[in-house]
Amino acid sequence: MAQATTHDTHHGELQDTCLNGLHRELGARMVPFAGYEMPVQYPLGVLKEHLHTRAAAGLFDVSHMGQVILRGAGLDAALERIVPVDVAGLPVGRQKYGYFTNDNGGIEDDLMIARRDDHLFVVVNAARKGNDLALLRRGLEPEGITVELIEGRALIALQGPQAEDVLAALAPAVRDMRFMDVATVDLQGAEAWVSRSGYTGEDGFEISIPESDAEALCRALLTDERVEAIGLGARDSLRLEAGLCLYGNDIDSGTSPVEAGLTWAMGKRRKAEGGFTGAAEILKQLEQGVDRKRVGLKPEGRAPMRSGVALFDAEDGGEKVGEVTSGGFGPSVNGPVAMGYVSEALSTVGTRLWGEVRGKRMAVDVAALPFVPNGFKR
Amino acid sequence: MKFTEEHEWLLVEGDLVVVGITAHAAEQLGDVVFVELPEPGGEVSKDDEVVVIESVKAASDILAPLDGEIVEVNEAIVADPGKVNEDPEGDAWFFKMKVEDMSALDELMDEKAYRNFIS
């Protein structure tokens, strides 16, 4: 059997998270991912892990992601110069989605920003940690802001409609949190920084906890029969069905927030005032429009259309009008789902296009995102 | 049962050879979500790409293990690709072929040799 596509592999030394031993004990298949050895799936398998998360609760190790604390007078204004979202308007105890931009209006990475007491706690993608730290240091340190990469804390996610009941058994106070709230919570005697968020489209929590307490917490959560350990494979299909972007696939340094349909995160004030890296280009795009837009794509048949599949405006001949950036099988949709970029004129939901898979043009329709309704507790 | 280095199994059934993928291959692939089979009646040469299977993780090609003619395909795995994970070396066979030179099977691995090959 010849593999046509495989997971990205990285060469060189791989780092472990503090939960590596637990993953192995649980029978995970470990793969290199963004410089870390991570579980891609457990014995349950990607399909059932995905469906379990949507039905009950899934436990994810996302400790490879970068956790950073920003602190200092003038922090909000300084961060707003490199992240075009409304940081100043973020209250204590709340979190929001954002992204770093570059001079061309492209996206350097996406991130979550939480305001905890007197500081901001941000979480960035594993593969972009070095890049993002450099951006933060260059942008903030000259202003007297400290940028501290947190070592020694694991990050785990508990996601799914039963995540609240599961976590509330350890800490009843989490029931009072709403979507995008953040709080410090005592979990089995450990100080956990909890947010009611995640990247699966489900209700759930992300929990930053000292490494020394992480395995005990995971074991406690896994004793609950509603909880299964979930690998990166299902994490990817869950976020794809939820219409969420994967950095490096759906957004990158050559893609703007306008093209990606992410300007909702900017807020009115930033769009009006500008004053951030790449503002000239992004504000121009907001006013004049863009040539291509990110859309959901629903292949008509059963064949998945994966990243890189070219999209055409005709079954024969025609023009190339776009490309798939993420695609695969959606277990909850029970069929193939994808995202990609298409010409603005063809970005209306329902537009029929054709994707070229193994030399054959297959019908695919522009579809509304997300593919499954989200379960956030607002 | 005979085995190829491409993780296919071959079973002689009268004058036909039944072809599928091994349990080891199915496990490595993960959950199979799509199968595309050839039209019966076609002549194939060894190593032609005759079947496409897609798992949750990746697309893979199944190669014709020998020269011959595809005479029958298993539509049940097209309707329910999950069968490939459930019973890869039984119900979830892929196709049956009329092999030009049955003695070519002698060149393939037996079960013991295949076990060594994957270990």
UniProtKB/TrEMBL annotation, chain A:
Domain of life: Bacteria
GO molecular function terms listed in the Swiss-Prot or TrEMBL record: aminomethyltransferase activity; transaminase activity
One term under GO cellular component: glycine cleavage complex
Chemical reaction(s) catalysed: N(6)-[(R)-S(8)-aminomethyldihydrolipoyl]-L-lysyl-[protein] + (6S)-5,6,7,8-tetrahydrofolate = N(6)-[(R)-dihydrolipoyl]-L-lysyl-[protein] + (6R)-5,10-methylene-5,6,7,8-tetrahydrofolate + NH4(+)
Cross-referenced NCBIfam families: gcvT, PRK00389.1, PRK13579.1
UniProt record similarity statement: Belongs to the GcvT family.
Protein name: aminomethyltransferase
Organism of provenance: Sagittula salina
GN (gene name): gcvT
Automatic annotation (TrEMBL), chain B:
Gene3D superfamilies noted in UniProt: 2.40.50.100
Domain Lipoyl-binding per the UniProt entry, residue ranges: 16-98
Alphabetized UniProt keyword annotations: Lipoyl
Record field: transmembrane: none
Pfam families linked to this entry: GCV_H
GO BP of this protein: glycine decarboxylation via glycine cleavage system; protein lipoylation
Coiled coil: none
Keyword Protein transport: no
InterPro entries per record: 2-oxoA_DH_lipoyl-BS (IPR003016), Biotin_lipoyl (IPR000089), GCV_H (IPR002930), GCV_H/Fam206 (IPR033753), GCV_H_sub (IPR017453), Single_hybrid_motif (IPR011053)
N6-lipoyllysine modified-residue sites: K57
Cofactor note: Binds 1 lipoyl cofactor covalently.
Record's subunit section: The glycine cleavage system is composed of four proteins: P, T, L and H.
Family: Belongs to the GcvH family.
Function as written in the Swiss-Prot or TrEMBL entry: The glycine cleavage system catalyzes the degradation of glycine. The H protein shuttles the methylamine group of glycine from the P protein to the T protein.
Protein name: Glycine cleavage system H protein
